[in-house]
Amino acid sequence: MVLAAGRGERLRPLTDRTPKPLLEVRGEPLLGWHLRALARAGVREVVINLAWLGAQIRSRIGDGAAYGLQVQYSAEPEGALETGGGIFQALPLLGPGPFIVVNGDTYADIDFAKLAIAPHELAHLVLVPNPAHHPRGDFALRDGLVQSQGEPRLTYSGIGVYRPALFAGCQPGRFPLLPLLQAAIAARALGGELHAGAWTDVGTVERLEALNSSR
């Protein structure tokens, strides 16, 4: 599942007319980079959630055939459903097994084919070294388990593998993902790994420009 429903407030005015996942990095939409990487990893079915300017995404990506994929869409109401609510709504499209989730407004060189989730894990997060704009990080990582406390602090990349069971007991509507992750941490069921390669949260015009000027 590629998360593509957000408004992209910090990227205005670029996102006033273009949804954030369609902003281009070196001639390819951010969303396109993810779809090509997923296809290279052997993924064949992708769900994309839509809200802000979602019709543009649907028009640009279509059924996914140009990427060697079968793409379905999960349309959300105006204002979107936050990450937790958006994934929960899409569960019927995602099937009963584990699935990859990717934030559509990031850029990374992660090899999706190497992602895995252990039998005891409800989710498995890809963490990265803290970027300058997020120095305090989100979590710690110890012996393959994500922790709420501890050092060194690391940042959640927006990429992970999830089981539908993480969302057991949830109700339809708008809700965040973090409380579910915290519950999994408490149950020692949130795994993780460190990615030391390229990764950018394309959250501002300046970061987008920096990414476009790099090679």
Folded structure, characterized:
This protein has 215 residues and is an alpha/beta fold. It has a single domain, classed as Spore Coat Polysaccharide Biosynthesis Protein SpsA, Chain A (Alpha-Beta Complex), CATH 3.90.550.10. Helix content is 25%, strand content 25%. It contains 6 helices and 13 strands. It has helices spanning 14-17, 30-40, 54-61, 82-94, 178-186, 205-213, and strands spanning 2-3, 24-25, 28-29, 45-50, 70-75, 99-103, 106-108, 123-128, 140-142, 145-147, 155-162, 190-194, 199-201. The protein has a 7-stranded mixed beta sheet with strand order 5-4-1-6-11-8-12. Strands 2-3 form a two-stranded antiparallel sheet. Strands 7-13 form a two-stranded antiparallel sheet. The model has no long low-confidence stretch (mean pLDDT 91).
How do the helices and strands line up, and which of them pair or pack?
Elements: E1 2-3, H1 14-17, E2 24-25, E3 28-29, H2 30-40, E4 45-50, H3 54-61, E5 70-75, H4 82-94, E6 99-103, E7 106-108, E8 123-128, E9 140-142, E10 145-147, E11 155-162, H5 178-186, E12 190-194, E13 199-201, H6 205-213
Parallel strand pairs: 1-4, 1-6, 4-5, 8-12
Antiparallel strand pairs: 2-3, 6-11, 7-13, 8-11, 9-10
Considering the chains and any ligands shown, give keywords for the structure.
single chain, 215 residues, alpha/beta, Spore Coat Polysaccharide Biosynthesis Protein SpsA, Chain A, two-stranded antiparallel ribbon, 6 helices
Total separate domains: 1
Mean pLDDT: 91
List the secondary-structure elements in sequence, H or E: EHEEHEHEHEEEEEEHEEH
CATH topology annotation: Spore Coat Polysaccharide Biosynthesis Protein SpsA, Chain A
CATH architecture: Alpha-Beta Complex
Order of neighbouring strands in the sheet with most strands = 5-4-1-6-11-8-12
Which homologous superfamily in CATH is the superfamily? Spore Coat Polysaccharide Biosynthesis Protein SpsA, Chain A
**Cα-to-Cα separation, first versus last residue:** 27 Å
The tally of strands reads: 13
Structural class computed from helices and strand pairing = alpha/beta
Count of helices? Answer: 6
Largest β sheet strand count, sense and barrel closure: 7 strands, mixed
| Contiguous runs where pLDDT drops below 50 for at least 5 residues | none
CATH class term = Alpha Beta
What global shape is seen?
Answer: globular
Measured as a percent range, the helix fraction is: 25-40%
Radius of gyration: 16 Å
What amount of the residues lies in strands?
Answer: 25-35%
